[in-house]
Write a structure and sequence with these properties.
By secondary structure, this protein is an alpha/beta fold. The chain is 34% helix and 21% strand.
Length: 710
């Protein structure tokens, strides 16, 4: 049976149905490409569909009808002959023709049973709306394991679990439970939404529809147990009808596939914009600000991250048919003085420069009776005539000192939307750099006109500033050649204290001081092989911050002072942490230099191996002043990280201060990042904290550290 014929089957004579069902059970059907079955199915089955069209289980049938899906729709319900007035089929095996895509609306083990049923009749793709047992429960782990086994055995690709479905406006495919798609008509467009949250997918659709903005597809990813964002995105990147991708993410999964998707989209000239929820505080170290590892992943792979949900939708037109390249500054042209100042203020808080027009541009405008003040914002609110706005926009777009221009439109956008928008649209048609607009009043018609002209239109100063910041920070992919597949968590680990870890750091080429390790129970020597002053530290794999419990003594000048300090440290540590294993004491010479930094390596549960540079002594925990990159890194990246940490200005020669040995610091960063390559035993985390940086040419020395391995 040809797929074109099967797609139009709605009912037939009993004998014909039996023959076709037998053919289906025998497996006689043409193979269907994954992208076709996922996004352009000719037939869909709704397993567990409900009779109430206003409830989640009944909504997919209602939406498919409402939006004019032309393929065959097969409700599956063994207890009813009719569902919402349509014929219901008792089983998949009883259907009169092949099915490309099934939506399963059952829960728990019944949903997995339904996946197995789909596999038996060779349905290639299943969207699993179903919920499984709660996260982290043993029942859920067993369900996921069984789901993967069933899918693999039968060759079924699974979207979900917890997916709210797939929407393709051009074909009327509204295979979703989301109520937002019941309230508005669907417009076809050129953006693809890939969202972990179904409600976020619905919100982006409804906000876009309010501006007549259409979508090529909207896909709710769910738990990504099988089909991943990266795999789906890579296939969609081949589609000539797709211009950009909008991602709403809870977590990063299948990062190697996501990286391949990002590279493919970049090569195709299709930008990716992402809004990601922050990870739980328990999933990141206290010294690392929320989302830093994910931000490093996005930056390395050319994915633009936004901070405002609204920006995710509004920024896309500015990036279409543009190539990444870190920008310098923005230009603001405003017909609403206060709003222009609000955007400029917000940009300043985000570290984005606002460059005004130079004196030659102002003279040319003055000859056209357009007067501007001395402020960076080119404000024409005193006489906001269309011809004045167009003239200033042309000057700003031609100025060499800015990389993006924002037109801030005031009250005229509400009362005369066509007149207010016309100069912006005209200027954009001849612009070599991006031109966006902020519409200050509530002016839906102005927003619709701007969107229709392909101009990025923002509704709030915050979103506009966020969009300009994100665009200027957009860079090409610069990820390391190694792509890390997701690493399954393993139980158990071993912590190495400073005495053990620093010997490994020395093997990596990171200098360490001369030190003496006095084992537990051994007497302190009567003489030391290096001169004072001395430092004494407790060595324990169970104590993270020894100084907090009196486990360290500094600046000791005599061996007697060392012996007394050693006795006191053992007493204090024993009283504060009687459960901790004390492996002895370390005596070092007190070293001096220009600055202390902390270099940390860890395997982030989302982004994979990352290396972090921050100021030492816990300063990063207070100020969040750090640089984070995917590991491993090269020396050029290490120098970029050193430049990024504001506190290191003191050793970069700021105000003629002595320069530190940045070469040795960069080499230490590179060395620590190469823990990413060690697989046996796998290093889970490691830190040199602090690394003392001496004057230029004098090197650096690791004063303390730790390591965690499998």
């Amino acid at each position: 049976m040809r797929r074109e014929e099967a797609a139009t089957v709605a009912a037939s004579e009993p004998a014909a149905e039996a023959a076709q069902a037998a053919e289906l059970r025998a497996g006689a059907r043409e193979p269907v490409e994954l992208a076709e079955a996922l996004l352009r199915p000719s037939s869909v089955a709704l397993i567990g569909v409900g009779d109430d069209p206003d409830q989640a289980q009944g909504r997919p049938l209602r939406l498919l009808r409402r939006h004019g899906f032309q393929g065959a729709i097969y409700p599956i319900d063994p207890s009813r002959r009719l569902v919402q007035g349509a014929r219901a089929w008792p089983t998949l095996a009883a259907l009169p023709g092949p099915v490309d895509h099934a939506l399963i609306l059952l829960d728990g083990d019944a949903a997995i049973d339904a996946v197995e049923d789909c596999g038996r009749v060779r349905i290639p793709v299943v969207t699993l709306h179903s919920t499984l047992a709660p996260k982290s429960s043993m029942t859920r782990l067993l369900q996921i394991e069984r789901l993967r086994a069933v899918a693999h055995q039968h060759g079924v690709r699974v979207l979900g679990p917890g997916s709210s479905g797939i929407v393709v406006p051009q074909t009327g495919l509204a295979l979703t439970t989301e109520p937002a798609f019941a309230a508005r008509e669907m417009n076809a467009g050129r953006f693809v939404v890939l969202s972990h949250g179904g409600s976020a997918m619905g919100a982006l659709f409804s906000r876009g529809a309010a501006r007549d903005l259409g979508f090529a597809a909207l896909i709710s990813l769910g738990g990504e147990v099988d089909l991943s964002l990266g795999e789906i995105g890579s296939r969609a990147a081949d589609d000539a009808d797709v211009d950009a991708f909008l991602l709403f993410l809870h977590e990063l999964h299948h990062t190697a596939a996501l990286a391949r998707f990002a590279a493919k989209a970049h090569d195709a000239g299709k930008p990716i914009i992402a809004y990601k929820l922050l990870p739980d505080a328990a999933a990141r170290p206290p010294a690392e600000p929320a989302g830093a590892a994910a931000e490093a992943f996005f930056s390395a792979h050319g994915i633009v991250r936004v901070d405002q949900f609204e920006t995710l939708l509004e920024l896309a037109p500015m990036m279409v048919r543009r190539r990444p390249g870190r920008g310098r500054a923005a230009a603001l042209v405003s017909t609403a003085e206060c709003a222009g100042s609000l955007v400029a203020d917000r940009l300043a808080r985000l570290g984005v420069a606002v460059d005004g027009l130079d004196h030659l541009a102002r003279e040319r405008l003055a000859q056209q009776d357009v007067a501007l003040g001395d402020h960076a914002v080119a404000d024409i609110s005193a006489a906001p005539k269309p011809e004045a706005l167009r003239a200033v926009l042309d000057e700003a777009l031609g100025a060499p000192n800015s990389d993006v221009v924002l037109a801030v439109l005031g009250a005229g956008a509400e009362f005369d939307p066509e007149g207010a928008v016309a100069p912006v649209v005209a200027a954009a048609q001849h612009a070599d750099k991006p031109l966006a607009a902020l519409v200050v009043p509530e002016a839906p018609e102005a927003l619709r006109l701007l969107s229709g002209a392909g101009i990025a239109a923002f509704r709030t100063p915050e979103a506009a500033a966020d969009g300009l910041r994100a665009f200027l920070a957009w860079t090409p992919p610069s990820a390391p050649a190694i792509l890390w597949e997701d690493e399954a968590p393993r139980s158990g680990h071993r912590v190495l204290h400073a005495g053990q870890a620093m010997q490994i750091f020395r093997l990596l080429g990171i200098p360490i001081p001369t030190m003496l390790w006095v084992r537990r129970g051994a007497p302190m020597p009567k003489a030391l092989p290096f001169p004072p002053p001395y430092v004494v530290k407790a060595l324990s794999p169970d104590i993270e911050h020894r100084i907090d419990i009196g486990g360290m003594a500094l600046g000791l000048e005599t061996i007697t002072a060392v012996q007394v300090a050693a006795h006191d440290i053992v007493e204090r540590v024993g009283a504060a942490r009687p459960d901790a294993f004390l492996d002895g004491l370390m005596v070092q010479r007190l070293e001096r230099g220009l600055a202390e930094v902390a270099i940390t390596f860890r395997r982030d549960p989302e982004a994979g191996p990352v290396v972090t540079l921050a100021m030492g002594e816990g300063i990063s925990e207070i100020y969040g002043d750090r640089a984070v990159r995917l590991a491993p890194i090269d020396r050029a990246t290490a120098y970029a990280m050193i430049d990024e940490v504001k506190g290191l200005a003191r050793i970069r020669g700021h105000r003629r201060r002595p320069r530190g040995d940045l070469d040795t610091l960069a080499q230490a960063l590179v060395a620590m990042s190469f823990f990413a390559l060690i697989t046996a035993p796998r290093v889970l985390a490691a830190a040199v904290d602090p690394l003392l940086v001496r004057a230029e040419g004098e090197g650096a020395v690791a004063l303390d550290g730790w390591m965690k391995t499998e």
